[in-house]
Amino acid sequence: MLPNKKALDLIKIYMEKDFTSKNLKELTKKLIELDLLVKTEDNTFTVRSDDPEELMHSRVGALKEGIEKFAVPSNVTEIKNPKILDLCSGMGYNAVSALHYNINSEIDMVEYSKEMLFLSLALDIPMNEHLIIKNAIFEFFKGNGNQKIRIFNEDARFTLLRKDLKKYDCVFHDAFSPLNDPVLYTVEFLKLIYENMADSGVLISYSSSIPFRSALVECGFIISEGPSVGRKRGATLAYKNPNELQKKEIKRIPESDERLIALSGVGIPFYDKNLNLNSSEIIKNREVDRENLKNLLGDKYYSTTKIKSGKIDEKLLNIQKENLNSSEIIKKMKKIYLQN
Ligand SMILES: C[S@@+](CC[C@H](N)C(=O)[O-])C[C@H]1O[C@@H](n2cnc3c(N)ncnc32)[C@H](O)[C@@H]1O
């Protein structure tokens, strides 16, 4: 899925003009007048997406999200020269926030839409570090590279297959919601992220979706409930091989979610074997997988309502009382459920 088409078309017109502050100001003015650029509660701006219901950020604040959902939980301040993969970098709020908390961050920004990168030049994100990002974007448009802030203007599925990637300490995963656009939430894509992370690396996403968390567990991540900013549900943190400090920070996800991931059709993840399917193909394939699971389990198949309310075999429920993290519980429950 992409940002709103009308917004992209208008930005394209300005990309052809000189990059003067007069033109950039005129662009933001027009986007605001057309209600395509929307002010959030912290006075920073976000863009409408192709789905009229979905903005690129939540209403509580585009910059607030960058800080509270990504930079702070990633613990970037504590990492020496952190290497960050900023997936779906958009206007760069998450990258600006990371630099604010650690000026030595090396960031690889991955964004499909050239227009969103350009729009960053027209915005005034109220942190000095925005100038560093603006400068990298400006150089990108001039055709120059930047060692510290690299910009990959392409589909993230292609980027993850590159040979020149780093071993990332933090991965910011900020795609549109998985039920609208599952392309970057598939097992195969998340596996590539896993392979490109440092041992103590952490992936962060605002999404708490069941199939997404299920895919993370399948890839080998240790999942943890993250902070909730502007939503009821918490964000997701996923560790590759948590160190002692990280182990202490791991929080179980809600128990009913553990059960849904382990036992229900809702817990079936998205797949994209050759990393080339579109959203509707991925969604359709998952429907088939859900139907197959139902047929395979026959009488043993629990309804979602039963699973949510915990009206299931005591043996499975007892696993949730063990001193394990959510990923371990989910794997154990699933194994026993499918064995019986
Ligand atoms: C929710 S917004 C992210 C906002 C962004 N982090 C920011 O700070 O402005 C999602 C972004 O993902 C981009 N996107 C969508 N699909 C993509 C893909 N397959 N690869 C790379 N970027 C993608 C969209 O163009 C959009 O800018």
From TrEMBL:
It comes from the Archaea. Transmembrane segments: none annotated. Coiled coil: none annotated. InterPro entries: MnmC-like_methylTransf (IPR008471), SAM-dependent_MTases_sf (IPR029063). GO terms for molecular function: oxidoreductase activity, acting on the CH-NH group of donors. Residues 144-241 form the MnmC-like methyltransferase domain. This is MnmC-like methyltransferase domain-containing protein. It comes from Methanococcus maripaludis (strain DSM 14266 / JCM 13030 / NBRC 101832 / S2 / LL).
